[in-house]
Amino acid sequence: MSSSKRPTRSSYGTPRPYPRFIKGSAKRIHSPLYPEDTVREALINALAHRDYSSTAGGVWQSDPALGVRVTFQTGEVTEEVTEEVTEEVMRLLHVMTDSMKRSEIQHHLGLKHEEHFRRAYLLPAMEAGLIEMTIPDKPRSRLQQYRLTGKGLQFLKQTEKR
After folding, report:
1. pLDDT digits over 72-89, tens only?
2. Which residues contact 62 (CB under 8 A, 6 or more apart)?
């Protein structure tokens, strides 16, 4: 067996440590491929700079042998979160009547820039589960419209009581 053999990958796809030999000795030491401080910094940056405005998520985990597991949970929007609905989404909900095309909603809001409308109004409202597409299988359909969900109606009733 050759000592210059490249490390194999673990079942999680992470490289295994390189064995290194101490000069003038038959002893060897195993050291990680990446310095511990570098991995720690990368993990901290991943957590600190995650986009928490998105409801998308999932689970990321490293090799369990290293003992690191980070979980990003997704789930229902709680009352605490719905109270933090942006002013833009609130305006959107108040102009919604039955099913409406994107252009109709934009017109009622007095907005002209389509991309800004999608990012600041439409997507956050959909991610919060307050509105939905009438044709979810074809998001780019010319016949696509949007309507309030039960959650959206309930949210409007709650805000009107205040």
Report:
1. 444 444 444 444 678 899
2. 12, 14, 68, 69
CA distance linking residue 56 with residue 29, whole number of Å: 41
Amino acid at 100: M
**CATH number of the domain at 79-161, out of 1.10.10.10, 3.30.1490.480, 1.10.3720.10, 3.40.1790.10?**
1.10.10.10
**Given this model, what pLDDT does residue 38 score?**
82
Query: Rounded to whole angstroms, how far apart are CA atoms 105 and 133?
Result: 13
Average pLDDT of span 90-104? 92
116 phi/psi in degrees, rounded to 5: -60, -45
pLDDT of res. 77: 44
Q: Tell me the one-letter amino acid at 123.
A: L
Residues 6+ apart with CB under 8 A from 126: 132, 133, 146
**How many CB atoms are closer than 10 A to CB 65?**
10
Answer whether 16's CB lies under 8 Å from 8's CB: yes
Question: Which of 69, 53, 40, 50 lies closest to 127 in space, CA to CA?
Answer: 53
Which residue type does 132 have? E
Q: Where are the domains of the chain?
A: 18-72, 79-161
